[in-house]
Amino acid sequence: MTHRTESTRTESTPRLQAQTAKRQVSFALLTWVEIRKLLDTRSSFAILAVLAALAAVLVAGLALFSQSQGMPMTFAGYAGGIGLFTGLAMPLIGILGMTSDFSHRTTFVYYPLLRGRTGQFWAKVVAAVAVALTLQLFVLLCSAVTAGLTMGNAAPADVFQDSAGVIGRGLAACLLGTMFGVALAAAIRRTALTIVAVILITLVGNGLIITLLPDASGYLSTITAIAHIAGGPEAPSVLEACTSLAIWYALPLGIGWWITERGEA
Predict the structure, then answer these.
(1) How many CA atoms lie within 13 A of 39 on its CB side?
(2) Could you tell me the pTM of the whole model?
(3) Residue 98 in contact with residue 179, Cβ under 8 Å?
(4) Which of 172, 173, 177, 182 lies closest to 88 in space, CA to CA?
(5) How far is CA 29 from the centre of its chain?
(6) CA nearest to 97, candidates 2, 218, 191
(7) Which DSSP letter does residue 25 get?
């Protein structure tokens, strides 16, 4: 009886492995599951809805203010006017996307069903970026529609001057902001603590760096890459932007990936 049981186990193991291999979850499916987590979870959906509504209200407020001052704004003006919103909202999406499973330790359930942990880690990154870019496109659409309505008699070439550059810089800022939140969340792995860290570093840390270390602020500030993309005569150099990206993006993301691969869950 014992021999038969062991024999059955021996025969069934390769079969089970073959069945498991056939059921390997694709990266596209993993990414879609992570997007669903962001959209289906009640708290995450509420936060995304609030961010979208807040963006629309900010654009409407800019329109009312500019109209009251008799200075209608162009598409570039609206898109640039809500830059602070992008700087604070997009990291939040990255944090929500990365920490949901880590906070509730539901990775104990997912990891045994997957061939490895790397796929789900990067699926979280791609899902957060996809949702953030969707919100950024909504913000740009609100800006474009409002600019077209408030500058009704102006020529479209004036209203939408440098539209390609505005959209490109907006999407780049969104990508960098989201990845900043993703990277810190991957390393810290706690939602509330990461949100506090992002707010303190963005609003207080950068100011202290510029005040106390003005000569090195280009290398140490979190906004160097965004300032480099914005351009201008005082834009940071490529070396400064790459150093900032290495410190605030690549390093914490690498630490998070290492913890994911080596950690308990």
Answers:
(1) 12
(2) 0.80
(3) no
(4) 177
(5) 19
(6) 191
(7) P
Cα 182 from Cα 91, distance rounded (Å): 7
Contact 34, 114 (CB under 8 A): no
The closest alpha carbon to 190, from 92, 82, 99, 265, belongs to: 99
Give backbone dihedrals phi and psi of 221, rounded to 5 degrees, phi first.
-70, 150
Helices (H), 82-117: 83-104, 107-110
Alpha helices in 105-213 (DSSP H): 107-110, 118-150, 156-159, 163-188, 191-200, 206-212
Closest CA to 121 of 248, 264, 254: 254
In angstroms, the CA 198 to CA 7 distance is 56
Please identify which residue in the block is written with the tokens 């979870």: 41
Q: Residue 232 — φ and ψ, nearest 5°?
A: 110, 170
> What angle do helix axes 118-150 and 42-68 make, rounded to 10 degrees?
30
CA dihedral for 23, 113, 42, 190, sign (positive or negative): negative
CA distances from 188 to 54, 90, 167, 238 (A): 27, 17, 32, 28
Amino acid at 262: R
pLDDT-based confidence at 190, cuts 50/70/90?
confident
pLDDT tens, position by position, 82-140 = 877 877 788 999 998 888 766 555 555 566 666 667 888 899 999 999 999 999 999 99
Cβ atoms of residues 159 and 77 within 8 Å:
no
Cα 154 to Cα 12, 18, 24, 112, distances in angstroms: 74, 66, 56, 60
Q: Which of 83, 35, 97 is nearest to 55 (CA)?
A: 83
